[in-house]
Design goal:
single chain; alpha/beta; Nucleotidyltransferase, domain 5; 5-stranded mixed sheet
């Protein structure tokens, strides 16, 4: 296996939004690699902000075709970034995600996550990070689209 240079990586920026939380929501993704750029977004009828933050990361990672590349993930979600960097996710796995939200998405995340290739960086939301701001725009626009699909994994708490 060849050694990865510092330049041989993908920058992945993500954001999620939900109006009303729960309410209509969406996610935005920006992928950057060797001067190329790809934007992805989608929206849902009723969901939560945390679900959209996590789904943005999942969709971004799932869209990376070359699994040998390092992916630097930039998110303003403490929920997502701390779950990885603070090792919360490992504890949740050990307890079978007992009393944890968004289990369906965390299990989907684990199918694509590679701790040796994926590095998480927290960025301040609504600040000077141009790409995070773009993801926010994409997420909000997606949440306002007509004909939004249901978030099949969202379970409303009684």
């Amino acid at each position: 296996m060849k050694k990865m240079s510092n330049i041989d990586h993908i920058e992945l920026y993500t954001d999620g939004a939900a109006s009303g939380n729960p309410g209509p929501g969406g996610f935005g993704v920006v992928l950057k690699y060797k001067g190329k750029r790809k934007e992805i977004s989608d929206g849902f009828k009723k969901t939560t902000n945390n679900r959209m933050e996590l789904l943005a990361v999942i969709v971004g990672l799932e869209s990376v075709k070359n699994k040998d590349l390092i992916v630097k993930i930039h998110s303003d979600s403490k929920y997502v970034v701390d779950a990885i960097n603070q090792k919360w996710l490992e504890g949740w796995q050990r307890t079978g995600f007992k009393k944890k939200a968004n289990v369906d998405l965390w299990l989907r995340f684990l199918e694509t996550y590679n701790p040796h290739k994926h590095k998480f960086y927290w960025v301040k939301g609504h600040a000077e990070n141009v790409e995070n701001n773009r993801c926010d725009e994409l997420a909000i626009a997606a949440s306002k689209m007509s004909g939004l699909q249901p978030d099949e994994g969202y379970i409303e708490k009684e």
